[in-house]
């Protein structure tokens, strides 16, 4: 008889849809604790722009993998999967139900199925690529990546120098693209029995929520939060500082754009990000889709899962 896999719940969906509220309610009903799966909420000092769970929300239910990485520290899905797996298993050992909550699809996928980890490459290649990124910028390297690995080029943001360099160094060292290695890996073996609950709503309504959320972030002090990070000497070129909200506010503070343009592009780019998230989660046939208020429906699915 095959060994039973440990059970976890996943609450996923686009930014601004209400994942935190549902996960707290479900955690309280099912003796659960929340394991974050958000590539920005991991960072310290970045609270407003990441819509990190508030102190009050974290007091209601323990949250893990939130607010624990320095913004200057490299962090990727491989490291996330390693820490998140240990966290989930520790919760299970204590009789708690892990409720993995977030909108970073690759983090969720890497936790459940594992992830391809490239072999170490020549450090000289990495140094040369980093030097080139500093001299000509990540966008120039991204153009090269689109030529040699179109699949990775389409997936990786032009500002994400860390992942661009990783893809280029893999190709330079092995002659094979990072996408080839990842497609061979195929995330084949599931490590958990995961019930995936995906939150969806009509797109225009979601976009309205996102616009209101951006306005609220501004009211809560996003500009001062970014100013404080810059004053702490966190470079605007850091991967964390190139994320939604932070790069827009940093561009404004440095005089690259005016205030109206900062707000306009922040709302636009957040809506575009939500659209990419929707595309990712719609492509997963294992996801049970429902609205953000469907707590009873989600509870029913969890109850059935726990009985099997």
Topology:
Layout (H helix, E strand, L loop, with lengths): L6 E6 L6 H11 L2 E5 L18 H6 L2 E2 L12 H17 L3 E6 L2 H9 L9 H14 L1 H11 L1 H6 L5 H14 L3 H8 L7 E7 L3 H18 L1 H10 L14 H8 L5 H24 L5 E3 L4 H13 L1
Parallel strand pairs: 1-4, 1-5, 2-3, 2-4, 5-6
Describe the structure using short key phrases.
Rossmann fold, Histone, subunit A, alpha/beta, six-stranded parallel sheet
CATH superfamily of the largest domain: P-loop containing nucleotide triphosphate hydrolases
Number of strands: 6
Order of helices and strands: EHEHEHEHHHHHHEHHHHEH
**Main beta sheet:** 6 strands, parallel
Examine the coordinates and then state which fold CATH places here, giving the name of the CATH topology of the largest domain: Rossmann fold
Number of domains: 2
């Amino acid at each position: 008889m095959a060994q039973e896999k440990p059970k976890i719940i996943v609450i996923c969906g686009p930014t601004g849809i209400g994942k935190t509220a549902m996960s707290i309610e479900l955690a309280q009903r099912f003796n659960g604790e929340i394991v974050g799966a958000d590539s920005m909420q991991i960072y310290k000092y970045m609270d407003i722009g990441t819509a990190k769970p508030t102190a009050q929300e974290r007091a209601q239910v323990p949250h893990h993998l939130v607010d624990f990485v320095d913004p200057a520290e490299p962090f990727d899905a491989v490291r996330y999967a390693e820490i998140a797996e240990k966290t989930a298993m520790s919760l299970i050992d204590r009789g708690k139900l892990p409720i993995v909550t977030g909108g970073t699809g690759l983090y969720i996928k890497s936790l459940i199925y594992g992830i391809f980890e490239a072999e170490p490459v020549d450090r000289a290649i990495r140094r040369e690529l980093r030097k080139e990124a500093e001299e000509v910028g990540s966008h120039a390297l991204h153009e090269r990546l689109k030529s040699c690995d179109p699949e990775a080029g389409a997936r990786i943001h032009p500002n994400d120098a860390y992942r661009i360099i990783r893809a280029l160094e893999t190709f330079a060292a092995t002659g094979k693209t990072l996408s080839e290695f990842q497609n061979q890996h195929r995330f084949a073996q599931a490590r958990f029995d995961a019930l995936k609950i995906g939150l969806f709503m009509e797109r225009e309504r979601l976009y309205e929520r996102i616009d209101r959320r951006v306005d609220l972030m501004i009211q809560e002090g996003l500009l001062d939060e970014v100013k404080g990070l810059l004053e702490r000497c966190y470079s605007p070129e850091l991967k964390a500082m190139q994320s939604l909200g932070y790069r827009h506010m940093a561009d404004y503070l440095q005089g690259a754009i005016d205030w109206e343009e900062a707000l306009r592009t922040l709302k636009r780019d957040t809506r575009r990000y939500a659209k990419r998230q929707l595309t990712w989660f719609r492509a997963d046939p294992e996801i049970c889709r429902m609205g953000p208020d469907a707590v009873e429906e989600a509870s029913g699915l969890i109850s059935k899962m726990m009985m099997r």
